[in-house]
Amino acid sequence: MERDTDWIRPVVILVLLAAPAIGVRIASHFSDDPHLQPLAISSERGASASGGRVESGLAMVEVDVDWGQDWTGRMSRVELRDAIARSLSSQTDLYRVRFREAPGARIGVSFRVGPNVFGPYPPGGMRDGIHSALVALDITNRSKR
């Protein structure tokens, strides 16, 4: 007889653990408040997904890549964009990458957060710029919250 009811205790525990998150999710659905969404889309991701319009007043990391018109290296624009996106998306969703044509055969990557500009860096040395931009983004957005 005990074997038939062994599943009840784990199910009750799971329901009790999930109830607060489910309750908050239901409340966020009916109130349209993005700050109530547990483990879901945050207000920062919503600002990033708004096509560059920062609706919540948060700063963004704007990455400007000056792509040399005479560039003959092995790295393509897609590869560079993917490398930048991988580095930044692991820390924030508040970024935008833009490519601009530039004279010469060099690539320069600049990072802008509000009035702060870091770079230009060559593609191989942009790790310092990414770190500086993320620190500036954190400080800038922390003061706005």
Strand order of the largest sheet: 2-1-3-4
- For the termini, the CA-CA separation is 57 Å
CATH architecture of the largest domain: 3-Layer(aba) Sandwich
Q: Regions with pLDDT < 50 over 5+ consecutive residues?
A: 43-55
Coarse structural class: alpha+beta
List keywords for this structure.
single chain; alpha+beta; Glutaredoxin; 2 domains; 4 helices; elongated
What does this structure look like?
By secondary structure, this protein is α+β, with helices and mostly antiparallel strands. It has two domains: 2-36, no CATH class; 53-144, Glutaredoxin (3-Layer(aba) Sandwich). The protein has helices spanning 8-31, 43-48, 77-89, 127-144; strands spanning 61-68, 95-102, 107-113, 116-121. The protein has a four-stranded mixed β-sheet with strand order 2-1-3-4, covered by helices on one side. The chain is elongated. The chain starts with 7 loop residues before the first helix and ends with a helix.
Topology:
Blueprint: H1 8-31, H2 43-48, E1 61-68, H3 77-89, E2 95-102, E3 107-113, E4 116-121, H4 127-144
Question: What can be said about this structure in brief?
Answer:
This protein has 145 residues and is of the alpha+beta class. The protein is 42% helix and 20% strand. The protein contains four helices and four strands.
